[in-house]
Specification:
This protein has one domain. A hairpin with a 2-residue loop joins β1 and β2. It contains six helices and two strands; from the N terminus they run ββαααααα. The chain is mainly alpha-helical.
């Protein structure tokens, strides 16, 4: 079987598509794709934060940190240092007010499946 040079395929880097959503009258940019390096950082942060002192993963922490990482990495939202210090409170706010659900609904399912 003859080898086909990869460069002959004419593939290009994935363009960063962004969808805008309206949340409480504010327009938020939501990325449709996260490059692999960002996904690796996403996973590293979730894993390091979701383990307890014995290095066992707490499923509730896992869900919370995954949800917050989606907001941190897929949107143009900015958070203060104070907000980032109390991640439990931040999680409760973004979930109870529907922000997390609205952002996740704007990301393609196959993309979210790649990080969840």
């Amino acid at each position: 079987m003859a080898k086909v040079p990869f460069s002959k395929l004419g593939l290009k880097k994935v363009k960063e598509d962004i969808v805008k959503i309206d949340f409480n009258g504010i327009e938020i940019d939501v990325k449709q794709y996260l490059p692999i390096d960002d996904k690796l950082g996403f996973a590293a942060n979730v894993i390091s934060n979701a383990a307890d002192g014995n290095r066992f993963y707490n499923p509730i922490k896992l869900e919370a940190f995954m949800t917050l990482e989606v907001l941190f990495r897929y949107t143009n939202l900015s958070f203060t240092e104070t907000q980032q210090k109390d991640l439990s409170k931040l999680f409760d706010i973004v979930v109870s007010n529907g922000l997390a659900k609205a952002v996740m609904a704007a990301i393609p399912k196959n993309e979210l499946d790649g990080v969840f």
